[in-house]
């Protein structure tokens, strides 16, 4: 279900920037504000700490100092957020990395990239919370929390805070209100808040910075004047200090320095920027378009060499250039300073930013930083270049569950560009479909159809043509229209050669639609080809999905041995390659194989897991199938009250299918299942008799069945005679025919 060329391989771990997992190294001039650190430390029973203040208030520095001391008594993880973390998969991949770095014993098996954003709260966070409970006292700092806009990522944080253990503490640094449900925490005295007024420098702290650390020798009156004019804003004091170093009449400067934002802007340009030679000014202005900086990147953007040396010099001068690693390779400007630099860049060189973004795009593209390359291309309005990158990169992003990242890229295009760019419409259709957004998918496909007939040209993602990609999509995700799905999948098979990279996906789509159409022998042949091709290419997700469907096919053909073997193989490969929580149909196949062996109690939680995975996307074939199987099993176990709501849910899903085919037949069988265990007036079939009956549908003799079930031949023969009596028949074939009529098998 939902397989693309990008999902063919094992989902790779999300590449992580380790510099985000540690606070910036402390500076020599840093003033450790003990009064604030003590407020953070002397806070028993606090679950959430919010440090909310404008840029330049010292939030990061404060939490870094607290972390340094707090680590003596408990592990404290750190994560610096950026806008890319709005994707829940990205966010929780980083959070897990940070926590595991701080707590080496923490174990969380479910990976965000494998389960996808829609299932993180159900699959990843409960396991994480259990792990943190076992770990004891611990904490996590999320710096720059304001970079999480309202949406799925922030909602997942709110869910996590509500359920986190009392031994765990979360600390947020943010420039704006965090948008979290904090009222309950306030009411229970579980919330600590530090605001801008709390972070404002006192006169003593300002004197320590200006005179003790920076050795400016200011008179007390001048220190008081700066504190008053800046209202204690740490960045304003530091900005003033930078210029005071080069000012002879410092008292006069203090007298004219203003603490309002307009004066600070003027000060930055006139006193800080202009204090440097033109080469350094150019570096600062033109590299301000970058989120993070290194020497070679700046060389490419500025079109000259020597940036690494200048960056090192600027970092040593503490000019709002913050190191991101201990090697002095990567840096970033203070966000406010970078913003002001960009304003000044546009003032001095109107229109220059677009070309700088283009150069940054090319550097990141050539160095494999695909997401940053796409971001710069979009900021440069280089929509053609961005579109080409997205068209090639989307499968890999989807492989690790970053559906929201891809959709966010597409939302940044002007609507008319998307509507005229058939490749982007196709990407949009694929990602929306895999995300379970049925109506939006239909709209994207309708827009695509306006471009038909499509030109037979290969696509960047490996498809032979637009027609083939769209046909594969309709076949792989048919939304319950199995007639149309089969037709499209067969058309894709005509267009994708046996050696093509997407051929295994196409074969799997054909096989799946044939299975749901009741053409089991033909489905088995296509699925066998899909598995063989996928194994040769290492496309493990295709292998797992096709093995699962083929196991179900074997069950329909009465080959219990093959059914069990294929289901076990699918389960084993899924576990080996980290795909346990990706394909719901693996759990359906596993559960069905357990039922075929009479292991009802073991099968039930397997079906439940499959239903849990299938519900978020609501793809009809997986969801309806697992609900039907689960309901049938519960009925067979005599738990009719539990089966009824599942039947109703399955009926609601099947009703949405334009052409449900076998789903409708299987549902009808379950609807009358309350009486299927009774063959005649001669009594109900026992669970053991049901197992033997199903195995009679295969090729095994009674003696062979006995060996499979570890029972004697006489016992199996007794069960068989009892089955014949209860069904009112006298032969094996008649028993099987009557059992199928009753819906038992």
Q: Could you explain the architecture of this structure?
A:
The longest helix has 18 residues, at 520-537. It is built from 39 helices and 9 strands. It starts with 33 loop residues before the first helix and ends with a helix. Helix 11 (234-244) packs parallel to helix 13 (261-272), helix 29 (540-556) runs parallel beside helix 31 and helix 33 packs antiparallel against helix 34. The chain is elongated and about 115 Å long. It has a 5-stranded parallel β-sheet with strand order 2-3-4-1-5, with helices on both faces. Strands 6-7 form a two-stranded antiparallel ribbon. A hairpin with a 7-residue loop joins strand 6 and strand 7. Among the domains are: 18-199, P-loop containing nucleotide triphosphate hydrolases (Rossmann fold, 3-Layer(aba) Sandwich), CATH 3.40.50.300; 203-275; 476-674, Tetratricopeptide repeat domain (Serine Threonine Protein Phosphatase 5, Tetratricopeptide repeat), CATH 1.25.40.10; 679-742, Arc Repressor Mutant, subunit A (Orthogonal Bundle). By secondary structure, the chain is mainly α.
Task: Kindly summarize this structure in a few lines.
The chain is mainly alpha-helical and about 750 residues long. The strands form three sheets. A five-stranded parallel sheet has the order 2-3-4-1-5, sandwiched between helices. The chain has a two-stranded antiparallel sheet with strand order 6-7.
